[in-house]
């Protein structure tokens, strides 16, 4: 009987283009369900396919151990159970296995950009996105705040995670994750994929502003110029994709003082005072550029702090001088 089941596994795996282990698991699950029905068992049942017979076990779990008790099944009953399982429950389990295979294929795409069509806007704002073989979810918190979608819209997003929840697989998408911006940069700037330009860090406030720290492996190559492109030709499509998100590209520096100055672009910085023990910096800018340095709602200085890893306090040049005299 088991030999026949083995042949069935091989045949179905070939026909459905599924791995044999997935087909075997579906068959074992269907037989386990048939055993439970035939013997009116409510607890978990585990099935093993061995050399020339099928073994079934009652599985009891406690906090610190799992006990497996053999289930006594007459050979004639086992034949009937196996036949029933193969005909009835196996088809249902096989459908689940095919669905799982489709989701598992997307595991390899974690961290990559995928394209899909919005099929449903849920009441909580989450989007169900058709990715072809499967559906993905773009949660409200992973959407750029100023964006609004309707059924039929085409969108690009980062495949953030393939996870299993309550026995079902879910594909979680994101348009707010820093890696989404990084993958967009890789698509627009070949030098990043080729290794000439390295993206050192990214800080984002989705839809508002982002700062990208870059370096070059070739001293003759200006990483900022390469990433931005002639007249912004490479960065402009990314800003458009991100609903107007302003992107500041910053060249890495081994000097903390210089890095902090660059991170506050587009505001000019006239002086920096470091407090290494607190990993804090006080920065002076012209009074008329103070609002530019801080940014709307503090976004510019907040992102500068994230990209440098230093807390940055911004002052006008006059207030900076007063603080200097007090210390």
UniProtKB/TrEMBL annotation:
<dbReference type="GO" id="GO:0005829">
    <property type="term" value="C:cytosol"/>
</dbReference>
<dbReference type="InterPro" id="IPR025249">
    <property type="entry name" value="TF_NusA_KH_1st"/>
</dbReference>
<dbReference type="InterPro" id="IPR009019">
    <property type="entry name" value="KH_sf_prok-type"/>
</dbReference>
<dbReference type="InterPro" id="IPR003029">
    <property type="entry name" value="S1_domain"/>
</dbReference>
<comment type="similarity">
    <text>Belongs to the NusA family.</text>
</comment>
<dbReference type="InterPro" id="IPR030842">
    <property type="entry name" value="TF_NusA_bacterial"/>
</dbReference>
<dbReference type="InterPro" id="IPR010213">
    <property type="entry name" value="TF_NusA"/>
</dbReference>
<dbReference type="Pfam" id="PF13184">
    <property type="entry name" value="KH_NusA_1st"/>
</dbReference>
<comment type="subunit">
    <text>Monomer. Binds directly to the core enzyme of the DNA-dependent RNA polymerase and to nascent RNA.</text>
</comment>
<dbReference type="GO" id="GO:0003700">
    <property type="term" value="F:DNA-binding transcription factor activity"/>
</dbReference>
<feature type="domain" description="S1 motif">
    <location>
        <begin position="111"/>
        <end position="176"/>
    </location>
</feature>
<dbReference type="GO" id="GO:0003723">
    <property type="term" value="F:RNA binding"/>
</dbReference>
<dbReference type="Pfam" id="PF00575">
    <property type="entry name" value="S1"/>
</dbReference>
<keyword id="KW-0806">Transcription termination</keyword>
<dbReference type="GO" id="GO:0006353">
    <property type="term" value="P:DNA-templated transcription termination"/>
</dbReference>
<dbReference type="InterPro" id="IPR036555">
    <property type="entry name" value="NusA_N_sf"/>
</dbReference>
<keyword id="KW-0889">Transcription antitermination</keyword>
<comment type="function">
    <text>Participates in both transcription termination and antitermination.</text>
</comment>
<dbReference type="GO" id="GO:0031564">
    <property type="term" value="P:transcription antitermination"/>
</dbReference>
<keyword id="KW-0963">Cytoplasm</keyword>
<dbReference type="InterPro" id="IPR015946">
    <property type="entry name" value="KH_dom-like_a/b"/>
</dbReference>
<keyword id="KW-0694">RNA-binding</keyword>
<dbReference type="Pfam" id="PF26594">
    <property type="entry name" value="KH_NusA_2nd"/>
</dbReference>
<dbReference type="InterPro" id="IPR058582">
    <property type="entry name" value="KH_NusA_2nd"/>
</dbReference>
<keyword id="KW-0805">Transcription regulation</keyword>
<keyword id="KW-0804">Transcription</keyword>
<protein>
    <recommendedName>
        <fullName>Transcription termination/antitermination protein NusA</fullName>
    </recommendedName>
</protein>
<dbReference type="InterPro" id="IPR012340">
    <property type="entry name" value="NA-bd_OB-fold"/>
</dbReference>
């Amino acid at each position: 009987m088991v030999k026949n089941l083995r042949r069935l596994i091989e045949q179905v795996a070939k026909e459905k283009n599924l791995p044999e282990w997935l087909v075997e698991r579906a068959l074992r699950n269907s037989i386990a369900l048939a055993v439970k029905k035939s013997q009116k068992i409510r607890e978990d049942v585990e099935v093993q396919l061995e050399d020339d017979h099928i073994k079934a076990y009652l599985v009891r779990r406690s906090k610190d151990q799992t006990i497996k008790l053999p289930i006594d099944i007459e050979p004639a009953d086992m034949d009937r159970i196996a036949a029933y399982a193969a005909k009835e429950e196996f088809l249902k389990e096989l459908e689940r296995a095919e669905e799982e295979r489709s989701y598992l294929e997307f595991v390899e795409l974690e961290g990559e950009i995928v394209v899909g069509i919005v099929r449903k806007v849920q009441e909580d704002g989450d989007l169900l996105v058709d990715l072809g073989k499967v559906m993905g979810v773009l949660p409200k918190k992973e959407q750029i705040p100023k964006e609004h979608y309707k059924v039929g819209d085409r969108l690009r997003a980062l495949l953030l995670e393939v996870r299993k929840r309550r026995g079902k697989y879910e594909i979680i998408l994101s348009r707010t994750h820093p890696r989404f911006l990084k993958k967009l940069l890789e698509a627009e700037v070949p030098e990043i994929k080729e290794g000439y330009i390295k993206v050192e860090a990214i800080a984002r406030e989705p839809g508002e502003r982002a700062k990208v720290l870059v370096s070059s492996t070739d001293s003759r190559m200006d990483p900022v110029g390469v990433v931005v492109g002639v007249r912004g030709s490479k960065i402009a499509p990314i800003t458009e994709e991100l609903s107007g998100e302003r992107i500041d590209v910053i060249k890495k520096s081994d000097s903390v003082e210089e890095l902090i100055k660059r991170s506050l672009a587009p505001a000019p910085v006239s002086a920096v005072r470091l407090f290494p023990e607190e990993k804090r910096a006080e920065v002076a800018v012209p009074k008329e550029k103070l609002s530019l340095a801080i940014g709307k709602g503090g976004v510019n200085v907040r992102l500068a702090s994230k990209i440098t890893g230093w807390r940055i306090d911004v002052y006008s040049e006059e207030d900076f001088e007063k603080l200097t005299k007090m210390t």
